[in-house]
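Appendix B, record 7
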Amino acid sequence: MSNPLRIFNKVLAATAILLAVAAIYFVLKLDRIERELQKTQYQLDSLYASYQILHTGATQSAGLLRAMSNENILHVRLDGMPIAPDASAYIYWNPENGQVYVNPAGLPALEQNEYYQVWAFKGNDAVSLGVLDMNKSPYLIQRMRDVKEADEFAIIRVEEGEKSRPMLENMVVATQ
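Structure tokens (predicted):
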């Protein structure tokens, strides 16, 4: 009788070893699958973020195209002033609803501690329309604050920490 018991014990031991090897194999396989799943999830998140950026850009572009194709839009060229004679920019302004867009493509590069501020003038009054975000593509037309009345526009260069005022010596471009 010891012979069948011995055979049973050997089969049981072999089965235990086989199960242990299979368990280790499947644990390693599961670990690899989890890493691949994490990698795929990261790629999916990255693709979704890219989609969101493209979707937002397309939505903004469509809105900008609608606004720019409005027959009431005035195209105002801003020419270089003495501190940047070759500079230029364009203002797209709808006096009916006050919407203002700026194309900063012709503005010179800024130092790290500088920014551009857009101004509208009506008589002796100056109104800031906001700061251009030059971290975006310099060819991206940007929406500014609305202004219903304006005789002239200008863009000034401002150093961080400096109080921004539309002074002639700071004007990079302005209507002529």
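Remarks on this record: The radius of gyration is 33 Å. The chain is about 40% helix and 25% strand.
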